[in-house]
C-alpha cells in the first residue's frame, strides 16, 4: 500500500502572504521540493518513472536473485526511445536535457535499481560524454546517434586490476606501429563490458595518457563477464582484455591528453550518482513508511511508537536534504558553475546517507527487511558498490580536504 501523495495532518499552519491556506503536508515531499521543478522537469521525471515501473520493477527481484540482466539490449533501445541515453548532451540524436532533468532521470532509475542507473550512466556520462567532448567530428557522427538510440551499448575502460583509485598508475599501453596504434592491457570492473559494441579505453602512450575509441569486434579484444557478485547483481560487469588490439590512427580521441580527460568524464558520472543514490534511499524510505503504518505489534501499528517515528523522521531529513543538495548542484551545472570538488561533496554525502537510510529501513522491516519481496536489502547491497565506484569515500574526503586546506594529502 503506497502512501498517498497529498495526505496531510490537519491544521498547524499560518496562511501564506497571499492570504490563502497553507499547502497540505506531503509525507513524500515534506519540504515541497516539487515546487522547484518546471512542468518540463516533472514530465521528464514521470516518463522515466513510468518506464521503470512498467519494465523494471515487476522483474527486478528475479533478475537480482538470478544475478543477470536479461534483455539488456532491448532495455537499452527502450531507454534510447524515451531519450534517457546521453540525455544531457546536445546534437547527434541526444535529447539536450538540462542537468536537473538528467538528475531526476537518474533518481527514478536508481529507485528501481542501481544496476539500471549504472547502465544509463556508463552509456551517457562516460562513453558518450567522452566521445561528445573529446572526439573528432567523424567519431561523433559514427557512434553518438546509434548510442543515443540504444542501438549500440558503450563501456568505459579506466580502472585496472591493480590501479583503482590511482588511475595514473595504469599499465595498459598503446604504442605506435606505423600509422596504427596497438593496445595491450587489462581493465577491470567495467559496466556493460561484455554487451558493448564500443569501448572508450584509456591507455598510457609515449605522449601521455590518451583515450581510444575501440570497436569491441576488433581482433584481440575480449570482455569476459565477472560473476559471483553480491552487489549490482542485475548489472553486466566485465573485465576488458586488450591483446595487441590494432586500431587506425583516427581511433584516438584528438581533443584531450592526460588524466584530465577521464577525470572529467568521471565527474560527470558522479553527478548522476548524487541524484541516483537518493532514488535508492527514497525507495527504502517509502517502503519503511508504508510498512510502519500497516505492520502491527503490541496492538497497534509500529509507526505509532516513538522510536520508529524517530527513525522515520531522521530518514526523511537526510533523504530530502540530499535531494535538495542534488538539485542545487544541478542548477550550478546548468549555469556552468559546477566544480569537481562540489560533485565530490554531493557524492560523498548522498551515497553515505543513502546507505544509512537503507540500513535504518531494514531495522523497521525486521526480518522482512532481508527478503527480496521488499527492495531494502537489494538497494543496501547495491549501494555498497556505489559507495566505492567513481571514487571511494576516502578519495572524496581527500578531494574536499585539499580544497579546504590547500594542502595535497594524496601523496
UniProtKB/TrEMBL annotation:
Region of interest: Disordered: 1-26
Top-level lineage group: Bacteria
Occurrences of domain Acyl-CoA oxidase/dehydrogenase middle (ranges): 155-245
Cited SUPFAM superfamilies: Acyl-CoA dehydrogenase C-terminal domain-like (SSF47203), Acyl-CoA dehydrogenase NM domain-like (SSF56645)
Coiled coil stretches, renumbered: none
Pfam families named among the record's database cross-references: Acyl-CoA_dh_1, Acyl-CoA_dh_M, Acyl-CoA_dh_N
Entry keyword set: FAD, Flavoprotein, Oxidoreductase, Transit peptide
Cofactor(s) of this protein: FAD
Family the entry assigns: Belongs to the acyl-CoA dehydrogenase family.
Protein name according to UniProt: Acyl-CoA dehydrogenase family protein
Biological source species: Streptomyces silvisoli
